Amino acid sequence: MDINTIIQEENLVYRKTPLLTEKPLSYCPGCGHGTFHRLILEVIEELGIQDITIGIAPVGCSVLAYEFMDIDMQQAAHGRAPALATAIKRLHPDKYVFTYQGDGDLAAIGTAETIHACNRGENIIIFFVNNGIYGMTGGQMAPTTIEGMPTSTSPYGRDIKIMGNPLKITELVAQLPGTHFVTRQSVHTPRNVRRTKKAIQQAFQVQKEKKGLAWIEVVSNCNSGWKLTPVKANEWMEEHMFAFYPLGDLKVDGNLVK
Ligand SMILES: Cc1ncc(C[n+]2csc(CCOP(=O)(O)OP(=O)(O)O)c2C)c(N)n1
Questions:
Q1: Which one of 66, 85, 132, 252 has the minimum C-beta count within 10 Å?
Q2: Which of 128, 134, 151, 237 to mutate to test the pocket of ligand 1 (most atoms within 8 A of CB)?
Q3: In a domain, 1, yes or no
Q4: In which band, very low, low, confident or very high, does the pLDDT at 158 lie, cut at 50, 70 and 90?
Q5: What is the dihedral of CA 27, 32, 33, 39, to 10 degrees?
Q6: Is the CB of residue 234 below 6 angstroms from any atom belonging to ligand 1?
Q7: For residues 202-216, average pLDDT
Q8: Res. 1 pLDDT band, cuts 50 70 90
Q9: Is 131 in the pocket of ligand 1 (CB under 6 A)?
């Protein structure tokens, strides 16, 4: 059978969205960033909004998101993505605008920008990848590091008595009046991938209807930073991260999920 017959529509089981560029991803195998990128871009392609969508890349492992996403992108200084997204959306209210940020970027250095953009109810989407550490710079402890979790700056595990409590920023922003849809998902199994994609579709719908801020946290492993194999890292994530960061919707249609 020649190649053209094989790739005929009826035989097609998977096709990479053309919005994901051909550039090889710089992420570690098993990291959630690449899958989350793909899902966001698939939704943008399916909605046909690739020419009217602007993404804001952060500082951290996904600093190069603009190399992988074939849409208009802007790069923000560390933690400032929600402020930049605010400006872009207000200048271009008819465009779809999202930020894509890690937990060090969003919940440490950019906490103020994050909370105020959520509280104001900016009509943007915040995509948030929580791996519990500063991945790119060597796995240091972040506000999101859970109790007992070893990091390069807390090699014996986070001790709350000394290092303070981990921050559940997704629970926090769900309380703010400006957030309309707040959910926490993962992308480590096919079922979770499907749920995350559905959440991304909901988030773009919120922005389309100008209802306020939509927030999607994806809890991801950082296998190289956690010093575990990808499989072991996912097991550790299921057992420990999901116990502290349970998956599911926190706020739907502006109402807290009980
Ligand atoms: C103001 C400032 N402080 C520190 C840094 C160094 N820095 C670059 S990436 C990074 C960690 C980002 O971690 P996170 O946002 O969790 O993303 P990840 O790499 O884990 O995806 C840090 C601290 C910086 N670029 N600017």
A1: 252
A2: 134
A3: no
A4: very high
A5: 130
A6: no
A7: 98
A8: low
A9: yes
Query: Per the domain annotation, does 98 fall within a domain?
Result: yes
Does any domain span residue 19?
no
Residue 151 Cβ contacting ligand 1 at under 6 Å: no
- Report yes or no on 16 lying in a domain: no
Domain limits for position 215: 25-256
Residue 107 Cβ inside 6 Å of ligand 1? The answer reads no
Closest C-alpha to 149, from 240, 213, 26, 57: 240
Q: Return the CATH number at 69.
A: 3.40.50.970
pLDDT band at 7 (very low <50, low <70, confident <90, very high): low
Of 136, 217, 221, 237, which is best to mutate to test ligand 1, by the most ligand atoms within 8 angstroms of its C-beta?
A: 136
Report how far residue 89's alpha carbon sits from residue 84's, in angstroms, rounded to the nearest whole number: 9
Cβ of 211 closer than 6 Å to ligand 1, yes or no, is no
Tally of structural domains, the chain: 1
Q: In angstroms, what is the span from residue 48 Cα to ligand 1's centroid? A: 32
Overall average pLDDT of the 231-243 stretch? 98
Gap from CA of 80 to ligand 1 centroid (Å) = 12
In degrees, rounded to 5, the angle at the alpha carbon of residue 146 between the alpha carbons of residues 145 and 151 is: 50
- Whether residue 58 has pLDDT greater than 80: yes
Of ligand 1's atoms, which has the minimum distance to the CA of residue 105?
A: 15
Q: Mean pLDDT of all residues in the chain?
A: 96
